[in-house]
Specification:
With 155 residues, the chain is of the alpha+beta class. Helix content is 26%, strand content 26%.
């Protein structure tokens, strides 16, 4: 699962930045991504999103703050992996921890708060290299006013 998170109090997109071994030889830096995680056995995509947001960025999200956007294959010529992509809005009062991931999972995640305009520029300039983040960013740009104003509930 993956989720693009907007803090409606600060007007910032909440992202993660972390080392990814699989791309270390092709990228000399940590990669910026939307919150994401693996669906554990017997968990729903929604439950996974709620858990991952609290672990990675420190925000407790309620189901009514969450909107399903899309289900897509990450690389259908190579793998059957699918991403459930969501959008969530949070407020400063939803922050319950510093995030950063779980030590027992050897996660070392930097929480990145980015102005909406900077995020949109990084998407349109090709600075975002993560596919799920790029897809969510394009969807956000295409529907920004409707999402921020709560007009659209789901795609």
């Amino acid at each position: 699962v993956a989720v693009l998170v907007l803090n409606s109090d600060s007007g910032k997109i909440i992202l993660t930045r972390q080392f990814r071994y699989a791309i270390a030889g092709k990228s000399g830096e940590n990669i910026t991504e939307i919150v994401a995680g693996k669906i554990e056995e017997n968990d729903s995509p929604e439950k996974t999103v709620l858990r991952e947001c609290e672990e990675e960025i420190g925000y407790r999200i309620r189901k009514n703050q969450l909107r399903f956007w899309s289900l897509c294959f990450s690389s259908p010529g190579y793998t059957s992996e699918q991403f459930y992509i969501y959008y969530a809005t949070v407020k400063n009062s939803d922050k319950v921890s510093e995030g950063g991931g779980l030590a027992e999972e050897n996660e070392n995640i930097e929480v990145v708060e980015m102005d909406v305009d900077q995020f949109k520029n990084q998407i349109t300039n090709g600075e975002i290299k993560d596919a799920k983040t790029y897809i969510a960013g394009l969807f956000f740009i295409l529907n920004e006013k409707a999402w921020i104003n709560g007009i659209l509930n789901a795609w």
